[in-house]
Amino acid sequence: QVQLVESGGGLAQPGGSLRLACVASGFTFSNYAMSWGRQAPGKGYEWVSGISTDSKQAYYADSVKGRFTISRDNAKNTLYLQLNDLKPEDTALYCCAKARGVTVTAVLGQYDYWGQGTQVTVSS
């Protein structure tokens, strides 16, 4: 069965950095676009970033553009998200998601599997 397992979250100070990872199994990872989403306390899910199957296309929400970098290693079935210049408003549960196909989209309904997430807390 499809499994997505995130890691790398934790407590960071404003301006700090974290690197999240998502290990995928149960499907041919290289055949699907992947994304990261997040859910802040008391709010709905927000799409954060997505990447194409071959890593040639990467997209970001305006709120994280220039600070976050998405990448993937198809040989290791792993998706990454580098978080730099963190802000308190980045505090959220970060989840990786498998797209239904090869298209990267910010539409959450186009993702059919989500991981359990890793918590990122930004506070001084």
Explain what the structure shows.
- This protein has 124 residues and is an all-beta fold.
- It contains no helices and eleven strands.
- The strands form two sheets. Strands 2, 4, 5, 6, 9, 10 and 11 form a seven-stranded mixed sheet that branches.
List keywords for this structure.
mainly beta; 7-stranded mixed sheet
How would the blueprint of this fold be written?
Layout: E1 3-7, E2 10-12, E3 18-25, E4 34-39, E5 45-51, E6 58-60, E7 68-73, E8 78-83, E9 92-99, E10 111-114, E11 118-122
Parallel strand pairs: 2-11
Antiparallel strand pairs: 1-3, 3-8, 4-5, 4-9, 5-6, 7-8, 9-10, 9-11
General form: globular
Largest sheet: 7 strands, mixed
Average pLDDT, all residues: 97
Q: What does the radius of gyration come to?
A: 13 Å
The topology string of helices and strands comes to EEEEEEEEEEE
* Number of E strands: 11
Helicity, in percent?
Answer: under 10%
The class by helix and strand makeup works out as mainly beta
The N- and C-terminal alpha carbons lie at a distance of 40 Å
Task: Describe, in short, the structure shown.
With 124 residues, this protein is mainly beta. It has no helices and 11 strands. The chain is globular, with a radius of gyration of 13 Å.
